[in-house]
Structure formats: structure tokens, C-alpha cells
Specification:
β2 and β3 form a beta hairpin. The longest helix is centred in the C-terminal third of the chain and has 17 residues. This protein has one domain. It starts with a strand and ends with a strand. It has three helices and five strands, in the order ββββαααβ. 43% of the residues lie in helices and 23% in strands. α2 packs across α3. It is of the alpha+beta class.
Length: 83
């Protein structure tokens, strides 16, 4: 399970996008589309890859590696941490 890092601010924008930034002087990133869905389902709501797959109506095996790589990028960027 992941949690948002203590030095990260985020806000939900238009069209279900999320704007995320490390404080105090990080560069903001915008998560839209699938990235926004993964952020909401797995980071905000505490879901897992099964929940993401269900949201899109696909098998978990079809998305698990892509979701894992995206989450690893968020961890490397310091946006989320292991809970």
C-alpha cells in the first residue's frame, strides 16, 4: 500500500486530472487519463491493481506490469512512499 509523501501537495483539477507537486519548490506534474485513475484508486482510495482492472473492465494480468512501473516512477519521484 502506498501513501502520499509528507512533502507533496495535490489537487484535483478539471476532467478528473490531478496536479501533484513536491514542496517547497518541486515542478508540478499533471496526472490525467489512466494515470489519474491509478492515482485516485491506488493512492487516494488505497485500492490495488485488481481495483484498477475492474474500473477498466480488463484482467489484472493485462495491466499489472504497467501499473507497477507507473507506481515505481511515483516512488522514485518522491511523490508516494510505501505505507
Amino acid at each position: 500500500m502506498l501513501r502520499i509523501a509528507n512533502d507533496v501537495a495535490w489537487v484535483q483539477g478539471e476532467a478528473d486530472a490531478y496536479h501533484v507537486m513536491r514542496l517547497p519548490a518541486g515542478t508540478p506534474i499533471t496526472l490525467a487519463g489512466t494515470a489519474a485513475s491509478v492515482w485516485r484508486i491506488m493512492v487516494i482510495e488505497g485500492g490495488d491493481a485488481d481495483d484498477v482492472a475492474s474500473h477498466y473492465g480488463v484482467a489484472t494480468s493485462e495491466i499489472s506490469s504497467t501499473v507497477a512501473e507507473f507506481l515505481a516512477q511515483l516512488v522514485r519521484g518522491g511523490f508516494v512512499k510505501e505505507a
